[in-house]
Write a structure and sequence with these properties.
about 0% strand, mainly alpha
């Protein structure tokens, strides 16, 4: 308990989470069990000595390249041609574009920062108020890590020892459900606020937009299809996504210059470095928890006190929704997964099902204060105080939580595709 309080104390005074984890782990190794501190260094190093971890910087760099290549503009134009003619059209376009881009970037923040600027400008030009445009953009960005590929799924899969391909397959249905649920809410808003239609639907415009974006929308088909078909691993898929996005931006669209590459790599290195540092630090804590048999003790306690798996999952949802308000998603996944997977296994819950539930919970955290990254990205784009964006976002939490409850209580919504492809 002393070391838990030490960790919370360090976080409260602003110590980065990775540094705090290493300090606590080192303190335990030296003062708790009296071992050589080099043991801690070895565990930290071993934490990132894992080839599949390369998928994380690869997918991050692919997202940076896609934004630089102008793929976001083409995706937006295609979505506009498909659903822009219905009432509240550009808000529906916003959601559909996020669903399409989700199949390429795997990152909610990349969606909010890249597509967000295009979507919000188009909605503002068409008469939508800033708060509503910001709320739709922030809420739809949460679909990014659910529909594959997904950086969060890669991290969970590696931490839990679960098939990443299975997690990718499991994200399809929940991601589509999230988009559909938000579109229902948007339709209600459109009727009440009399949000107009966009341009009339034209098959010719749809055809042109489809042709212009064809190579871009082939990205998720190739990546996810290759993984599910066993053609390449998630790490190889990430490397291919980088190559494909670069070739499109440089030689097909001509929107990436050689001088842009160092900046894109630098930004990716910063983001990936933060995540990998946390993974390395958490490996030390994971080793300590395993040595002390914490997961096993928790599994026994939960099985004894939870009357059913549903109660456990509902309580877990509450815990994760609260944690998502105060912590970034990836550290929570890395820290809690080694504890939760054995507990869930003892209750008969599939680790793939558990992973999708965890990721969706923590994506909701990206749009809730005080730490919601997507919330702050969108607030900066629309130049509004964060609290005004939060007020506009509250109704959009309802469809997201509804989908979360559905996939929590009805596991087949998550598991039927992994079973179909032989991952479960």
């Amino acid at each position: 308990m002393t070391y838990v309080l030490l960790l919370f104390g360090l976080l409260l005074i602003g110590v980065p989470i990775a540094v705090g984890l290493i300090i606590v782990g080192l303190a335990y190794v030296i003062f708790g069990i009296g071992m050589d501190p080099l043991i801690a260094a070895q565990r930290v190093a071993n934490g990132i000595d894992n080839f599949p971890l390369l998928a994380i910087p690869f997918f991050m760099l692919a997202a940076e390249l896609m934004n630089a290549a102008g793929i976001t503009d083409r995706i937006f134009r295609l979505a506009k041609a498909m659903v822009g003619a219905i009432p509240g059209g550009l808000a529906h376009v916003n959601v559909l574009a996020s669903m399409l881009f989700a199949g390429m970037s795997g990152s909610a923040v990349a969606d909010a920062a890249g597509l967000g600027r295009i979507e919000i400008k188009a909605m503002r030009d068409d008469g939508y108020d800033r708060e509503f445009a910001a709320a739709v953009t922030a809420a739809s960005s949460t679909i990014g890590p659910i529909i594959p590929p997904s950086i969060s799924a890669v991290i969970y899969g590696l931490t839990a020892g679960v098939s990443i391909g299975g997690l990718f397959a499991a994200g399809f249905v929940p991601g589509v459900m999230m988009g559909a649920a938000m579109m229902v809410l948007i339709a209600i808003y459109a009727s009440r606020r009399n949000y107009g239609r966009g341009q009339p639907f034209r098959w010719r415009e749809l055809g042109i937009a489809f042709l212009h974006s064809l190579l871009a929308i082939m990205t998720p088909v190739i990546i996810v299809g290759g993984i599910l078909g066993g053609i390449f691993t998630p790490t190889e898929a990430g490397a291919f996504a980088v190559l494909y996005a670069f070739l499109l931006g440089k030689f097909v669209y001509g929107t990436i210059a050689w001088g842009d590459i160092p900046d894109l790599i630098f930004e990716t290195a910063l983001s990936a470095g933060n995540i990998l540092f946390i993974i390395a630090a958490t490996a030390l804590i994971g080793w300590i928890l395993t040595a002390e048999q914490v997961p096993q003790h928790m599994a026994v306690w939960v099985v004894e006190w939870s009357p059913s798996p549903w109660v456990f999952l509902l309580l877990l949802n509450g815990l994760l929704l609260v944690l998502g308000c105060f912590m970034a998603a990836h550290p929570v996944i890395i820290m809690l997964t080694p504890i939760l997977v054995p507990v869930a296994g003892a209750m008969g819950i599939d680790p793939i099902h558990l992973g999708v539930i965890m990721i969706l919970n923590l994506m909701i955290g990206l749009i809730t204060p005080p730490v919601g990254l997507c919330l702050y990205v969108v607030a900066e784009i629309v130049d509004l105080p964060v609290l005004r964006v939060v007020r506009a976002l509250v109704p959009f939490l309802l469809p997201l939580v509804a989908v979360l409850l559905l996939i929590t209580l009805w596991a087949d919504l998550v598991m039927w595709l992994p079973r179909m492809f032989g991952f479960a």
